[in-house]
Amino acid sequence: MSDGPLLEVDSLTFQYRRATEPAIRDLSFTLDPGEVLLVAGPSGCGKSTLIRAINGLIPHSYRGELSGSVTVAGRMTAQTRLRDLAELVGTVLQDPRKQLVGSTIAAELAFGPENLGRPREEIARRLESVLAATGLGYLLGRTTDELSGGESQQLAIAGALMLEPRLLVLDEPLANLDPVAAHRLIGLIRQLADEGTAVVIVEHRVEDVVDANPERVLYLEDGASRYLGPMDGFLAIADPRLVKVPFAVSMARATAAPDQPGNDDARMRLDQPTASPRLEWRNVDAGYDERAVLHDVTASLGQSERVAVLGPNGSGKTTLFKAAIGLIPLTAGEVLVDGSPTHGRSVADLAALFGYVFQNPSQMLFAPNVQDEILFGPRNLGRDPNRFTDLVSGSLERVGLAAEHEIRDRPPLTLSFGQQKRLAIAVALALEPRTLVLDEPSAGQDHRSATAFMREVGMIDGLESVYFVTHDADLALAHADRILLMRDGRIVADGAPLDVIADRERWAACNLRYTSLMEANARWGSGTGRFLDADALAHWIVGQDLEGGLEIT
Amino acid sequence: MRAAFPYLGRGSWLASRDPRVLLVAAILFVIGASQLRDSRQLGVVLVLALGYYCTARIPWRAVRVQWIYLLAVISFFAFFNTLISGGRTGTFTGAETHVLFTLPPFGAEISAEGVSLMLSQVMRYAAVAAIGFPIAYAIAPGDLGVALRRLGVADKIAVMVDLTVRFIPTLAGEFAETIDAQRVRGYDPTARKGGPITRLRRLAPIFVPVTVGSIAGAEDTIDAMDLRGFGVGRRTWLRHLKFDAFDFVLLGLFVLFAIVATFLNVTGRTDHYLLPFLV
Questions:
Q1: How many A×B Cβ pairs under 8 Å?
Q2: A292 forms bridges with which residues in the sheet?
């Protein structure tokens, strides 16, 4: 065991083999046992590359030009076998489902120590201890394909802990967790650090990580370090529009620069709400195979409304809309669209009314170029070919992709993730729907991209309504004028954002946590009259010349 | 959507056996059954195989479709064999056949010998299926790899078998999700228009995203395995397998069956039997 820092990154620069510029440049820092380092930054800033360099995947699995060094417990990762590094560094990658390799919970947890040839008795001991620490004992006996996204994430973390690593590296570990599960994980991270484990946590939801009391924050932009130091210092310089930080930070910025304009209302501009509903569920039951998900759901969404459906993992949010457009058969009740039952109507027929955008755009992109991708739907529905040119131009224009260089001829899968998200909406818009349904629009996007995306969706011309499903409560509350709150396949609240968050017990019962933005909106809501995003609310407060600010951190 | 073989036999007597027994029993059974030709003997074997199958307590409703499909395939091939051979095989070779009727349009003869042969084949393969089904439905998830390892298969291959079983549901889930994503674009996965090439091209909206997604996902999986030290040195297996008395008895019965079948074959005591009621 060396006496120096556990992790030492020295002048690290790495450029992938086929890339034109380095993914990370000249990074240097150290980490001692028991320290938590938060690595933050926008998408593409080099966070994942840094993780690969720390755990040894760079240079062992990813080839490129490497300069500088990474040393863990005195061993240079470039000169140490991955197997040996596995005993020092535990890593949890972004997508938990891809890294669960065992069919059962026990097999998954045992995988690492088994590979290292640990005796069976020792593996059993570690299994018991990790299950106790993570509280995942209740999962034993289940298979990994039965787990929700959140459970998979927690299991992946438990799998890394089974190696009893001295350094734990977590890449966006909160992405698939509902707020309560995320809070529990943050507590576990702090506990591990207090017991001597060093932790590197990559996360753009900075507010959620604050409770882990990270000793330091490394903020990256374009692969280079822009800040390295304590959390307080970071919060003093952080831009709340780029990373999600506590509301007090937005407040401080607005107080320091009261003349700068705040965000407009983040909600889309719609016509005045109409009384007649677009979509109604009447006593609907639905589910998958023999597993019932929706139970006696009754609700109606207006023709001109922005509605967000919120709830914990597995509460039935996505199933609600899949059942509405016929992707999942109803086992009881009925769904009405514009007053008429959907029974007997095809998915294609309903797709012309509801543009449905799935969570992951790559699940649908297949055509050789963007133009064919957009026209796939209109061709299937037998639309007039004379209008195709206008349809493509119009759709690309409405999602802000028209100005991209030779966009029509580009293969969809070569676009960036953000562009693919926009293309997915263009694909839906090409069917000329009146309502857009978005499933987890913030998935895979950082704070800045997600809020910008929702803002752009709100500005699309010609849409009557937008319904979206999300587990990002702040995003839902700030971008919708009505919230459906779901739990266990039932709607437990339906109302304006400020009204829905008013019942804190119900909120907590849905595995949701009050964020600092909710606290602020709850406090100032009577004045604003509606839920505002952090920037808009902070500027509103400053504009009201309210002295003293908020005692919210 | 469930796609992997569900553990339907959970809690049954056969599921509580060492998984190696189920694998070895199936091999021994195939060795034995493939040597028997007498439909009376095969009838007895089929009954015994079904008895074995019943100890797995696999719910009929859950596997009904698979059985119907399997029996249809077996029957088709058995019938096809009958057409080709005309029943002139084994002890029936050279003998005068008892033609029951001829099939239009080519006048293929269907003989009593041919039907006897067909029935014996159906019974043989149905018996093999009855012994094989519990491998899919009565071995606990995650036990297949360790069973293969303990049977001498290399660590890497045993883990890969487990990995394949593990990712079948994931792949199926992505498949179903992609079909849904294309259906909302007016795509009809059940459409049967056009020739084979057109039909194949119509599958591109499903197969391209699923394939691309799987390749991209495989990279993460490989990374995750590398980072947990897979594939470099000798590994241990947490799951401990141990034969109990029932396992030994069951395995002994299958060994006995293979020996008896081999004896019958070698001594010429099993040959095609003409079912008398057909003549």
A1: 173
A2: A287
Read off the pLDDT of residues A401-442 as tens digits, 9 standing for 90 and up: 888 888 999 999 888 887 888 899 999 999 999 999 999 888
**ipTM entry:** 0.83
Give yes or no for a contact between A71 and A8, defined as CB atoms under 8 angstroms apart. yes
Mean predicted lDDT score pLDDT of chain B: 89
Spatial neighbors of B97 by CB under 8 A, at least 6 apart, are B86, B87, B88, B109, B111, B112, B113, B114
Q: A327 to chain B: nearest residue by CA?
A: B180
User: What distance in Å separates residue A129's CA from the closest CA in chain B?
Assistant: 15
* Chain B residues touching residue A413 (CB < 8 angstroms): 212
The DSSP symbol for A471 reads S
Mutate to test the interface with B, among A93, A99, A381 (most CBs of B within 10 A): A99
pLDDT(A17) > 60:
yes
| Whole-number percent of chain A with pLDDT over 70 | 95
Q: How does pLDDT run across A318-343, given as a tens digit for each residue? A: 999 999 999 999 999 999 999 999 98
What is each CA distance from A105 to A115, A170, A251, in whole angstroms? 16, 20, 45
Q: Residue A434's closest CA among A342, A301, A309?
A: A301
- Dist CA B87 CA B276 (whole Å): 15
Q: Using a CB–CB cutoff of 8 Å, tell me whether B245 touches chain A.
A: no
| Chain segment B189-211, per-residue pLDDT in tens | 887 777 888 888 889 999 999 99
All domains in chain A, ordered by first residue: 7-238 (3.40.50.300), 264-353+433-518 (3.40.50.300), 357-431 (no CATH)
Tell me the domain boundaries of chain B: 19-142+241-278, 146-226
Residue A484 near residue A491 (C-beta atoms within 8 A): yes
Most B-contacting residue of A58, A91, A140, A364 (CB-CB within 10 A), to test interface: A364
Q: Are strands B99-103 and B108-111 parallel, antiparallel or unpaired?
A: antiparallel
Question: What is the number of other CB atoms lying within 10 angstroms of the CB of residue B94?
Answer: 6
In this structure, what are the phi and psi dihedrals at residue B113, rounded to the nearest 5 degrees? -65, -45
DSSP lists the bridge partners of residue A332 as A285
Confidence of residue A181 (pLDDT cuts 50, 70, 90): confident
Bridge-based pairing state of the strands A89-92 and A167-171: parallel
Phi, psi of A361 (to 5 degrees): -60, -30
Q: Residue A476: which pLDDT band, with cuts at 50, 70 and 90?
A: very high
Helix/strand/coil (H/E/C) assignment for every residue in A308-329: EEECCCCCCHHHHHHHHCCCCC
Dihedral sign of CA atoms A189, A191, A194, A196 in order: negative
